[in-house]
Amino acid sequence: MEFDPVTLARIQFGANISFHILFPTISIAMGWVLLFFKWRFNATRDEAWMEAYGFWVKVFALTFAVGVVSGITMSFQFGTNWPGYMRTVGNIAGPLLAYEVLTAFFLEATFLGIMLFGRSRVSNRMHTLATFLVAFGTTVSAFWIIALNSWMQTPAGFTMVNGQAHVTSWLEVIFNPSMPYRLIHMLLASGLTVAFLVAGLSAYRWGRGDRGLAVRHSLKTGVYLAALLIPLQILAGDAHGLNTFHHQPAKLAAMEGVWHTERGAPLLLFALPDEASQSNRYQIGIPRLASLIITHQPDGEIRGLNEFAGRHPPVGKVFWSFRAMVAVGVLMLATAWLAAWQLRRGEPAGWTVSLLTAMTFSGWLATLAGWYVTEIGRQPWLVTGVLSTADAASTVPGGMILSTLLMYLALYLVLLASYVSVVFYLARKAGKHDELPLSANLAGEQA
Amino acid sequence: MNAELWLPVVFAGLMAISLLAYVILDGYDLGVGILLPLGAKAERDTMIASIGPFWDANETWLVLGVGLLLVAFPLAHGIILGELYLPVALMLLGLILRGVAFDFRVKARDPHQPWWNAAFAAGSLLAALSQGVMLGRYLTGFAPGAAAWGFALLAGVGLAAAYALLGAGWLIMKTRGALQARAIGWARRALYGTGLAVLAVSIATPLASSHIAAKWFVLPDFLLLLPLPLGSLALFVLLALSLPRLARRQAAGNDTLCWLPFAATVGIVLLSFWGLAYSVFPDIVIGRLTIWQAASSPEALSVILWGAAVVLPTIVGYTVYAYRVFWGKAEGLSYS
Questions:
Q1: Does residue A213 sit within a domain?
Q2: Where are the transmembrane segments (chain A) (predicted)?
Q3: Chain A, 357-416: which have a CB under 8 Å from a chain B CB?
Q4: B56 vs A442: CB contact, 8 Å cut-off?
Q5: What is the pLDDT of residues A67-94, one digit of tens each?
Q6: Residue A313 lies in a domain
Q7: Which residues contact B260 (CB under 8 A, 6 or more apart)?
Q8: pLDDT digits (tens, 9 = 90+) for A22-44
């Protein structure tokens, strides 16, 4: 099989960014959860909160490390894989990326050291502040990168002069039409990913008979956080969808599988979109529901893919990624509310514990699926209407990209498997040392 | 003065400072990684503990340096990283391996720990070698041919030796007892490696690059440049003489000069870096592209400059604070 360099560059960049996003998705919200544990400890002086902090800070350290090193890879690949990107929109992407490094990366990386290892060296107040600054740094980082990504989706605040974008208003660039929606959607996704991670791993410990106060605190934190965030996320997702309808109609048509502009479009539960015949096969839908959800009118008009011939994204991938995301979301809603209801009344049922454990990393699936919707949905553009992906691609020979792609893939598979297994191993190890959780775990951990 | 004239110079300076900070800061923690297999089993945790709170932030300087190259000199970023595609990929592999191994090694199952230790050391060595090769390729202007590649490999070994020397100096400063005594021994060996490599690279650089040779061997530049090799030579001699004395003092329990080897090595790095920067400036791709030809538009650069002017001093401030928090010897570092 012969691959062209553009396809390879896209696969390589897609593989790297897919791997990378898993870890910031956890560290953004985990920072705030750690701050919550710390705050509960400061308020109650209940050591169990600090024990929960001590366990989750290790997961955080691991997550942060993988995020940092896979992020370094990204900073090189922006240039190597997409030289046309900086050439065309460097005036906008450059400052946004620079501000991310300057205002966020150093802050989080520096105070991480104090947060992880400084508890006995600084005051409790300073340690709380360090925890806050790390959480704040991860969120600031999300702000800048989402601003840039959203600008690529819905560019604003610039003019094109001699094939280069020049800023006319930084406010419009940063707070471009899709930015607030995407930022909130992503922050909530991070919150949900962490809520299910905390709930799932605590349920795993619970299921193994490890039911100390710290596990109880963590389980409740995770489940209640999930139950609180999932309805908010559904609302935010709906608003984000409306925003897409107005600003990126081709993406929305692909998400809903609407080939031809129609009124009263059905909500498709199942279909096999077929690019060749410009239609869906085996379509099962609920009449008028898509129009109702998107236009808030049962016979509202949705513009079809026919209006964007040759300029719309690959339909099947967007269509199914969207359904995968929504399916995980619905499962999250049911699980979180059931578990929350059970926890209010007493202890969780055995099968709920198993379900929560199985859903430990469910946030990853929803987040990845969501990003595939928005990133594949932007194709064939890199920057909507300004720069096509093919025009931005590199001239590095395909063979070189292929060999490094294989290296990255092998590495990422090993690291992903190691990460998941080490996180579960940490949970088992923490249970074994219930009596002396800190000293026993940390004797061999002079790091 | 014209912004199109001075902004690229300012950004070249900022980028150089970032890369210099990276070479010194990540240099010592990569060096500790390279030395890890030489440490006794029980000492390895202390070695890692000495760099634990710092390595994340140290690597951020690389992101800033490459980020500045990307945003301030996008043309050069494309050429340089395109030419260095394979060594960059290997460096990233090394950095990823060591970064995650650092955290996995203390959290993974006991039988897996030797694997993560090996990954940490191998990743550190691979990253150091690749960075040296990148430097060597860069200095020859990416010239083809076996001689140019031989020069790049030489630079790779040289940089790895220099990092090992920095790492040994760091350990002498941050540890005590048997480990500190060993670190003095490692420093002595790394010193010879570094000295030979710096000498070889200094001789080979003008041979490998006529462009640089033309800059070195003209009067009065030659006389103005002379303090750089002479200063480096003085620091090498200082290290060579002081390390054996330091070993005797250390054995006698006197630790007052434990900072000296690290400081002297940093001095050598500063002088070498200054020499290289002088040789390259004002080109950014040697013989092909000057910083003015490669620079972004002044509008983007001035937006970044305002931010950098406010934020960089803050970063330096809290970095100093973090180093003060973990001042002194490294033992007893833990999550508690």
A1: no
A2: 20-41, 53-76, 96-117, 129-152, 183-206, 218-236, 320-341, 353-373, 405-427
A3: 394-396, 400, 404, 407, 411, 415
A4: no
A5: 888 888 887 888 778 888 888 888 898 8
A6: yes
A7: B242, B246
A8: 999 999 999 999 999 999 999 99
